[in-house]
Design goal:
The chain is α+β, with helices and mostly antiparallel strands. It contains 17 helices and 18 strands. The strands form five sheets. Strands 1-2-11-6-10-9 form a six-stranded mixed sheet, with helices on both faces. A four-stranded mixed sheet has the order 17-16-15-18, covered by helices on one side. GO terms for molecular function: nucleic acid binding; RNA-DNA hybrid ribonuclease activity.
C-alpha cells in the first residue's frame, strides 16, 4: 500500500555566480552619471567593506603580510596576530612554497572507460603573440613541477588561450574528448544557499582561500600521461590536478570534507577551495582559528595570503555578504547591474536572466518583475527590447539598490517539519482537494427538503455496499505436469491483486480448487478485507462455502 507524506521546502536556485558576465564599458557610466543612484540609503549604510589592515608575519621578510580586521579589540587583535605569526607556514607566496597534498591522502583518478578509444586532437596553430604566452607558461609550469615532458602518448589535447581582464593570457587545455571518456563522480557538492545560511549569524568570521587550489592535489600516477597537451616545445602532461578536467571539483570537495570533518557545520564552512571559519562570539575565534590551522598543517594545504582576511564581522562568501544580522546582496553585483545599459541582443537578455536567477532569493515576486524579459526571449533571434523591458529593467535596478536583509532561517522550525514528515511517512496519508462548495450546497439542499423513503434508502445502501465490496476470483486446474491455481482480488477502489500458484504435491481437481480458495482468502485477510464476494467455476466449492452441499 502506498505511503506518502509531503514536505514543502522553499529553496532558491542559486549557483556559482560569475560577475564577469555583466561587464560593461565604463564610458557608459561616465556619459550617464546621474541616470541611476546605486543605493538611496545614506553612505554609512552602503559601506559593505569592513576596514582591514595588514600585519607582517616575519620581520625578516616584510613583504609577507596578511590582512586582519581593523576594528578588532586590542587584545583580540594581538591574539590573532600572534596566532598568524605562529602558523605562518600555512601560507604560500609562490608555487615553491606549495609542496601539495600527499598522494597517500588523495589523488585525482580519471577512471577512463575501457571501451573508450584514445583521441589525438589535431594540432592548432597560434599567432606569434599567443605562442610567446604559451612558451612562457609552459616554462613556468616545468620549473615548479606541475607538468613534465612525455613521449608516445595515447591521449593528446590542444591548448586554448583565454584573455584575462588585464589583457594577459590564461592557458587552458581542451580536455573535451578525455572528459567524455570519464564517468561522472557522484560525490555531492554542498548547496551554496545552505552554506551561506549557516555562515550568517556569527559574530566573528575569517575568510580563507587555498593557494592555486586544484594544483595542490596530485594526479594519480597511471593517469598522468592521459592529460597530455601539445605545444611547439613538445608534449607535456600534468603531474597535478589541472583545471578543466571532469570531476576535479568533486575530488577537491572530498578532500576538504575529509580534512574538516570535525569542524564543518560547527565552526567551519567549506565550498571547494573557499573556506570560512566562524565563531558565535569573538572570544572563541582564536581557538577556532587554531583548530583550523592545525588541520591545514597536518594535511599540508597552503593558503593564498592575498585572498585571506581574518577576524572581521562581515564579508563576502560565495557571492553573498554575510554577517551576524543576516545575509545581504553582494554590492559588486548591484554595481554590475547598475552599470548595464539597455540590452539589444538575445545573448544580452539571456545573460541578464541568468544573472537575476542568482539573485532570486532577494527579489520578491521575481516572476512578475522579470516577465517582460521572458516574453522577449520567446521571440528567439527576433528579440526586441521594448518599453516594457526597459521599464522592468529600471525598476529592478531601483529595487535591488534597496535589497532587503535576509534573516538566517530558524533551524528548529525546519527540523520540526522534517521530523514530522518522517514520523508521518509510516501512515497512509494522502492529500485530497476540497470538493466544490456549489455541489455540496446542492446536496445539502436536497437532503434537507426531500421526504425520506426508507425502502429506497435501504436499497441504495445495499447497492452501494455491493458496488464497493471486495471480490475474490479463484480457479484451479490439474494436468499431467502438475496442479496450478490462479487468484485475483479486486479491491473496493478498483485495484487488482493477482497471484499464480503451483503446488508441489499430488492433488485432485477439487483439492486444487479448495487450495486456490484458501490462498485467496489469505490474501484478502492480509489486505484487510472484512466482506468478500467469491467467484469460482466449481459448484462443489461454492455450495460447500455456503453450507448448501
Amino acid at each position: 500500500m502506498a505511503r506518502r507524506a509531503n514536505l514543502s521546502i522553499f529553496k532558491d536556485k542559486t549557483g556559482v555566480e560569475t560577475l564577469g558576465i555583466l561587464e560593461v564599458n565604463k564610458e557608459v557610466q561616465e556619459e550617464n552619471p546621474g541616470t541611476f543612484k546605486l543605493d538611496p540609503r545614506d553612505k554609512a549604510d552602503r559601506e559593505k567593506e569592513e576596514p582591514i589592515e595588514s600585519i607582517v608575519l616575519d620581520e625578516r621578510e616584510p613583504d609577507k603580510t596578511v590582512k586582519i580586521g581593523a576594528r578588532l579589540a586590542k587584545q583580540v587583535k594581538i591574539d590573532v596576530s600572534n596566532l598568524l605569526k605562529e602558523y605562518k607556514e600555512i601560507f604560500a607566496w609562490s608555487h615553491e612554497d606549495m609542496p601539495g597534498i600527499s598522494r597517500s591522502v588523495i589523488s585525482h583518478n580519471l577512471a577512463i572507460d575501457e571501451k573508450s578509444k584514445p583521441v589525438v586532437q589535431k594540432r592548432r596553430s597560434f599567432n606569434p603573440e599567443r605562442s610567446v604566452a604559451i612558451k612562457e607558461e609552459v616554462s613556468r609550469l616545468l620549473v615548479i613541477g606541475s607538468i613534465k615532458e612525455v613521449k608516445y602518448p595515447e591521449w593528446v589535447a590542444n591548448i586554448v588561450l583565454v584573455e584575462k581582464k588585464n589583457n594577459q593570457w590564461r592557458m587552458c587545455v581542451d580536455f573535451t574528448d578525455l572528459n567524455k571518456a570519464c564517468p561522472k563522480d557522484s560525490f555531492t557538492i554542498p548547496r551554496i544557499d545552505q552554506l551561506v545560511d549557516a555562515a550568517a549569524g556569527h559574530e566573528m568570521l575569517s575568510f580563507m582561500d587555498a593557494y592555486s587550489g586544484y594544483n595542490q592535489i596530485k594526479m594519480h600516477k597511471p593517469d598522468e600521461e592521459k592529460t597530455v597537451f601539445t605545444t611547439d616545445q613538445g608534449l607535456y602532461c600534468y603531474t597535478v590536478m589541472p583545471f578543466g578536467l571532469k570531476n576535479v571539483g568533486a575530488t577537491y570537495q572530498c578532500l576538504v570534507n575529509r580534512m574538516f570533518v570535525r569542524q564543518i557545520w560547527r565552526n567551519m564552512e567549506v565550498y571547494v577551495n573557499d573556506m570560512l571559519t566562524k565563531s558565535i562570539t569573538t572570544d572563541k575565534h582564536v581557538d577556532d582559528l587554531r583548530e583550523t590551522f592545525d588541520v591545514l598543517t597536518t594535511y599540508g594545504m597552503k593558503l593564498n595570503p592575498t585572498k585571506c582576511v581574518f577576524g572581521v564581522p562581515s564579508g563576502k562568501f560565495l557571492g553573498y555578504q554575510v554577517h551576524q544580522r543576516g545575509i545581504e546582496l553582494n554590492p559588486d553585483k548591484i554595481q554590475a547591474l547598475a552599470r548595464l545599459v539597455s540590452l539589444k541582443t538575445l545573448k544580452d537578455i539571456q545573460k541578464l536572466t541568468g544573472f537575476l536567477a542568482s539573485l532570486n532569493r532577494f527579489i520578491a515576486k521575481s516572476i512578475d518583475r522579470c516577465l517582460p524579459f521572458f516574453k522577449a526571449l520567446k521571440k528567439g533571434k527576433r528579440v526586441e527590447w521594448n518599453a516594457d523591458c526597459e521599464n522592468a529593467f529600471q525598476a529592478l535596478k531601483e529595487y535591488l539598490g534597496q535589497a532587503p536583509l535576509l534573516l538566517k532561517p530558524k533551524p528548529e522550525v525546519s527540523g520540526r517539519l522534517t521530523k514530522w514528515a518522517i514520523e508521518l511517512s509510516e501512515f497512509d496519508i494522502e492529500y485530497l482537494p476540497r470538493t466544490a462548495i456549489k455541489g455540496q450546497a446542492v446536496a445539502d439542499f436536497m437532503a434537507e427538503f426531500t421526504e425520506p423513503n426508507m425502502e429506497v434508502a435501504r436499497m441504495m445502501v445495499e447497492q452501494a455496499k455491493k458496488k464497493f465490496r471486495w471480490q475474490l476470483r479463484v480457479d484451479g486446474s490439474l494436468n499431467t505436469h502438475g496442479s496450478r491455481a490462479r487468484v485475483a482480488v479486486l479491491t473496493p477502489k478498483g485495484d487488482s491483486v493477482e497471484s499464480a500458484l503451483r503446488f508441489d504435491f499430488k492433488a485432485t481437481n477439487n483439492q486444487v480448487e479448495y487450495e486456490a480458495l484458501i490462498a485467496g482468502l489469505r490474501v484478502c485477510t492480509a489486505l484487510g478485507a472484512d466482506e468478500v464476494e467469491i467467484f469460482s467455476d466449481s459448484q462443489v466449492i461454492v455450495n460447500q462455502v455456503l453450507d448448501e452441499y
